[in-house]
Amino acid sequence: MGGAAPRYAIYFLPDEGSALAHFAARWFGYDCHTGHACERDTYGLGELSAEAVDTPARYGFHATLVAPFHLAPAITVDNVVARMEAIARSVRCPPPLWLSIGVLDGFLALRPENDISLRRLALACMFGCDTLRAALTDKERARRLRAPLTAYQRILMETYGYPYVGDQFRFHMTLTGNLGERERERVSTALGRPLAPILADPVELNAISLLEQPDPEANFRLHSRVALSA
C-alpha cells in the first residue's frame, strides 16, 4: 500500500457546536468537525500550550474506538460506513459520561470514572470493522513499538492493529502530548478553570464518527457521523 493512501479511524467526538467541542477547537487550534484551523487560546500558558497540543491536534479532539487504519484491499470507505451503521443498530447509547482531567501515560486527558459500557462499544466497533482494515505496515508497527508495551499488548497489536483493545481499552479524550510532571500540573490548572463549568454536565455519547486523514501530512477530519440506538 502506498504511503499516500488515506487512513481512517472510528472515534467518539463531542457534538459539533457543544461547549466541549468549542473549548477543544480553541485549545487545539483545529476543529476536526470542519477540518479548519481555529484561533488558538493559550489559556495563559504561552509557548507551553503549543508544545502541549503539537501532537494531539493532528487527530482532533476525540476518544479512540478504532485506532487509525488503512483500508484492506477491495474495501471502500462506503463499506466502513455501512459496517458502522450495522454496529450502531445493535449497540445502545452508553450512559452519559461524567468526565474529569486525569493523567494517562504522561499526558493529560478527560476520563470517566467507569468505562465498562464504553468498552463494550469499543469491542463492537473493533470486531465489527476488523476485517475492513489492512495489516499494519512495518512503519506503523515500529511507531507502536516505541511505547512500552507488555507482551500481551504486543499480541493485541499484531492481532487487532492496536494494543489498547479489549480489557486494555481505556476511554480517554486526549488534551496534551507527553509532558513532564511540572508542565502537566501547569496545564491541568490552566485548563481546569474553563473546563469546570463544561464538565459540570455529563457528556452524551450518542454517535460514533468516522474520520479521514487524506495523507500522512494532513489532519484527521470528520467523514461520517452515525447515531447510536436510543
Task: Offer a quick outline of the entry.
With 230 residues, the protein is α+β, with helices and mostly antiparallel strands. The chain has helices spanning 19-28, 47-53, 77-90, 116-129, 138-144, 151-160, 181-199, and strands spanning 7-12, 30-31, 36-37, 63-69, 99-104, 107-112, 173-174, 207-213, 221-227.
Structural notes for this entry:
Helices cover about 35% and strands about 20% of the residues. The mean pLDDT is about 95. Helix 3 packs antiparallel against helix 4. The chain has one domain (about 5-225): Alpha-Beta Complex (Cyclic Phosphodiesterase, Chain: A), CATH 3.90.1140.10. The strands form 3 sheets. It has a 4-stranded antiparallel beta sheet with strand order 4-1-8-9, with helices on one face. A 3-stranded antiparallel beta sheet has the order 5-6-7, covered by helices on one side. A two-stranded antiparallel sheet has the order 2-3. By secondary structure, it is of the alpha+beta class. Strand 5 (about 100-105) and strand 6 form a beta hairpin.
